[in-house]
Amino acid sequence: MGSDSFQRARRRVAWLRDEIARHNLLYYQQDAPEISDAEWDALFRELQALEARWEELRTPDSPTQRVGPAPAEGFATVTHRVAMLSLGNAMNEEDMRAFDARVRRVLGDEESAVAYVGEPKLDGASLELVYEKGRLTVGATRGDGRTGEDVRANLVPIESIPEALSCAAPPERGSVRGEVLLPLSAFHVLNEKRRKRGEEPFANPRNAAAGALRQLHDVDRERLAALEFRAYGLAEGIPAAARTQLEVLQTLRDWGFRVSEESERCADVEEAIAYHARLLEQRESLSVECDGTVFKVDRLDLQEELGMVSRAPRWAIAFKFPPQQAETVVEAIEASVGRTGALTPVAKLRPVQVGGVTVSNASLHNQDEIDRKDVRPGDAVVIQRAGDVIPQVVRVLKERRKKRLRRWKLPKKCPVCRHETVRLEGEVVTRCPNLDCPAQLKTNVLHLAGRGALDVDGLGEKLVGQLVEAGYVKRLSDVFALDEETLGGLERMGEKSARNLVAGLERARNTTLQRLLIALGIRHVGENVADCLAAAFGDLDPILSADRERLEAVDGIGPTIAESITRFFADERNRAEVERLRELGVRWEKEAPRRSGEGPLAGKAFVLTGALPNWSREEAKAKIEAAGGRVTSSISKKTDYVVAGEAPGSKLRKAEELGIEVLDPAGLKDLLAGD
Q1: Which residues are within 8 A (CB) of 457 and not within 5 positions of it... i.e. 6 or more apart?
Q2: What is the pLDDT of residues 410-442, one digit of tens each?
Q3: Helices 205-213/184-196 angle, 10° precision
Q4: Long-range contacts of range 331-338, CB-CB < 8 Å, 24 or more positions apart?
Q5: Residue 85 has pLDDT above 90, yes or no
Q6: Helix/strand/coil for 403
Q7: For residues 6 and 21, what is the distance between their CA atoms, to the nearest angstrom?
Q8: What is the pLDDT of residues 124-162, one digit of tens each?
Q9: pLDDT bracket for residue 544 (50, 70, 90)
Q10: How many CB atoms lie within 10 A of CB 391?
């Protein structure tokens, strides 16, 4: 096995991990997917295959070893006592029979048939509901499978989630697992209302549901009330009398939960395949999105015997539906500018019916995807509705291509603001870097006002939308030019609310260099990078004048980040915004640049997790940095210590997997004292 092959595999694995992580962020946290489930599955399977061939490339932080992304900031975290795992996939009958053969082989009885329960694979957001003595106490998202977000406050309007179990003798603790869905009828009604208000419609029911659960500000109660919860399992509190999956489903019904009525017991794998075919025929008549069938071994004792692998149970599998396809013609390709500045090529199609829906647009994702598929205006193409929602071009019918059709390239200037676009080295996405681009202004203002940035209390999504649409905020810095008189003219903005927001803006004017750098929305500059920059430069002006070589000399700053920073500050419009923020009174604390080798913790990297007694997170961070150490937000092989307080999250487990030394708060105090 040649070294060239290994190096190619190593580079491909790195790209796949970054790409999967990017799409996970878009799917789970930004509710703005760019690719279909089928395309994500293809990326994931390719990564699995490469890691299976070159085991030395498989690491604990690989997406193949995790269920989903870590919980986002802003919600309390919840540790699942029983992990919420993902499912393996079967793409065809052969895969399903292979799964059945593995089950019988692990059970040690390859001749006997195994009974399964088939249930619709619901396309929603996974949720754990914890009931203590029959009362709802926790509502948690799946998160990374071990730790999720506590979103119970957003569950109150959902009628299908009972506050109390309907049973005379509830378990001491019950963990109900299920899916939060937005029924198709409600999805269409909500999208129609959003269009009438001039708002962007939801991409699909799944993302609309997941996004509703994770709202922190300006909570959309209408959307929450439209959601439906369907239970499909119990992780804790299974009655002794329930010995099969079907009996678990009946228990959930008895307790007051909705379950999928289409669920059915199958005596063997052939009956399971036949059930899947029947459900596929019914998919257009179902009230909710369904993208396949979940099969679970019916007997609970056999489930326990089969156990699980790193990210999935051995006793269950998702048998996916094939995507629905049709042929049409690409009449044009246009560049759409998204809320993060990403330019996405969109194929304008000759309208065609796919799965009962008229499709006239399809995302082509990025320039690399267009080049790979060689899609050109005028081409005949096969399209499909990915996950039955997001249309995509599957392939070009090149045998029908007319002569002299030109290749299509993304524009060099943003189609919205005419600013020059950029594509950073190593990235697939082309972006408009203009802070004031109208297509991304709302998102940039919300980012600036976020808790991790300037933390402007009261400046939420609806208000930002009003300010931009009314023309009061035409560029990012306009936020700090707002006054009570201007705000008082907005709909539903009372005198007190206007006064409170102006006071919040006044508080936000006094910030730190780290927060300012985050607020500017520079690509790749988050908490960790902002801390590194502040520690190395002490003030903004030296960063403005730093070249790539100087930036790359900073610990924690690589070539891609250095390129992103220099490109951002080389842009005269962005520099003008920074200067106007200064003119409008935004000030930050200056600090003396720290030199390596100073203090007892010089050169050491720390990660904090859990609550630290007697210290806030900021206080602990300040003490570590004052002693010459560095605090980062994520664990890597370069991390020297993880400080674990009360209720630590998944970072503690990762530290143990990587063999990183773990300190309790007392151990940190000893280090700070130089002991």
Answers
A1: 500, 501, 504, 507
A2: 999 999 999 999 988 777 889 998 888 988 898
A3: 80
A4: 331/377, 331/378, 332/377, 333/364, 333/370, 333/375, 333/376, 333/377, 333/408, 334/415, 335/410, 335/411, 335/415, 337/414, 337/415, 337/416, 337/432, 337/437, 337/439, 337/440, 338/32, 338/439, 338/440
A5: no
A6: coil
A7: 22
A8: 889 999 999 999 999 999 887 888 888 898 898 999 999
A9: very high
A10: 23
Could you tell me where the DSSP H helices lie in 389-460?
A: 441-449
Q: What is the spatial distance between Cα 439 and Cα 421, in angstroms, rounded to a whole number?
A: 14
230: β partners: 179, 258
Q: How far apart are CA 82 and CA 222, in angstroms?
A: 32
Q: How many residues does the chain have?
A: 675
Question: What would the two tokens of residue 600 be?
Answer: 């007892």
Say how many C-beta atoms besides its own lie within 10 A of residue 156's C-beta: 14
Assign 449 to helix, strand or coil: helix
Domains and CATH numbers, the chain: 3-65 (1.10.287.610), 77-320 (3.30.470.30), 325-400 (2.40.50.140), 441-589 (1.10.150.20), 605-672 (3.40.50.10190)
Query: Got the DSSP string for 227-252?
Result: -EEEEEEEEE---TT--BHHHHHHHH
Burial class, 439, CB count within 10 angstroms (exposed 0-12 / middle 13-18 / buried 19+): buried
Residue ranges of alpha helices (H) inside 220-366 are 221-226, 245-254, 269-282, 300-306
Other CB atoms closer than 10 Å to residue 631's CB: what's the count?
Answer: 21
Cβ count near 359 (within 10 Å) = 19
Q: What is the DSSP letter of 652?
A: H
Helix H or strand E segment including 348: strand 343-354
Where does residue 203 rank: exposed (0-12), middle (13-18), buried (19+ CB within 10 A)?
buried
- Averaged confidence pLDDT in the chain: 86
Q: Which of 621, 622, 645 is nearest to 633 (CA)?
A: 621
The owner of tokens 């959003």 is 194
The amino acid sitting at 290 is C
Q: For 623-639, how does the pLDDT look when each residue is reduced to its tens digit (9 = 90+)? A: 887 787 888 767 777 78
Catalytic site includes residue 121? yes
Amino acid at 251: T
Buried b (16+ CB within 10 A) or exposed e, 166-189: eeeebbeebbbbbbbbbbeebbee
Closest of 453, 433, 444, 422 to residue 575, by C-alpha? 433
**Residue 628 in tokens:** 């010459």
Out of 32-36, 398-402, 621-625, 633-637, give the one with best mean pLDDT: 398-402
| Edge-first strand listing for the sheet containing 316-320 | 88-90, 316-320, 290-297, 116-122, 264-266
Cα gap 64→654, rounded to integer Å: 14
- The C-alpha angle 247, 248, 252, rounded to 5 degrees, equals 115
Placement of tokens 């156990």 in the chain:
307
Q: For helices 37-53 and 3-24, give the axis angle rounded to 10 degrees.
A: 150
For 556-652, where are the E strands, in sequence order? 587-589, 605-609, 630-632, 641-644
Contact 211, 27 (CB under 8 A): no
Q: What is the C-alpha separation between 472 and 341, in angstroms, rounded?
A: 21
